[in-house]
Amino acid sequence: FVPLLEDRFAVLCSAGHRLEGRRRASAEVLAEQTWLLFPSGTPARERFDELTRSFPNPPRTHSVITRSPTMVSWLLRHEELLAFMPVNFARPMLEAGELHEVAIGPARPLAPLGLLRPSALLSEAAEQLSAYLQSRSSSTAQAIRPSRQRHAERN
């Protein structure tokens, strides 16, 4: 296994959500929100369930449960919701300014995305693809920081 891209989980909201730009949201504040969930059995859902164990009450959830980027984006932009998901899943929406990260404390790392290589010799084409992916991941690697930090650094 060759790691190509680090990732972590984050709490995300739409631009204009009442928690956007807040310095840090406590478990009590997060427990008062309505959440858009990923399906049961997914890493995002398992880690969400761990996160919400610290809530004083069970979280309110939206009736739709999805991992479709289109649905996640639409629901977060049109309803007052939070979602807990991998940053790389949401990266296009974060970079477009559609979504923003809500600060909740220590990073919640996720296993890196990567390339699984066989131990046997690779064909020339597979070796070239492997080398290309590794060079792209190191030359375009982005630190996974809250979107408002990246935005502030650009301005």
Provide a descriptive summary of the structure in words.
The chain is of the alpha/beta class and 155 residues long. Helices cover 37% and strands 26% of the residues. Strands 1, 2, 3, 4, 5 and 6 form a 6-stranded mixed β-sheet that branches. α2 (43-52) links the parallel β2 and β3 (60-65). The N and C termini lie far apart (37 Å). The relative contact order is 0.25.
E-strand count? 6
Average pLDDT, rounded to a whole number, is 85
Helix coverage percent: 25-40%
Give the overall shape, derived from the CA principal axes: elongated
N-to-C SSE string, H for helix and E for strand: EHEHEHEHEEHH
Rg, please?
A: 18 Å
Percent of residues in beta strands = 25-35%
Query: Which assembly state applies to the chains in this document?
Result: single chain
Q: Ranges with pLDDT <50 over ≥5 residues?
A: 142-155
The rounded distance between the terminal residues' Cα atoms is: 37 Å
Question: How large is the count of helical segments?
Answer: 6
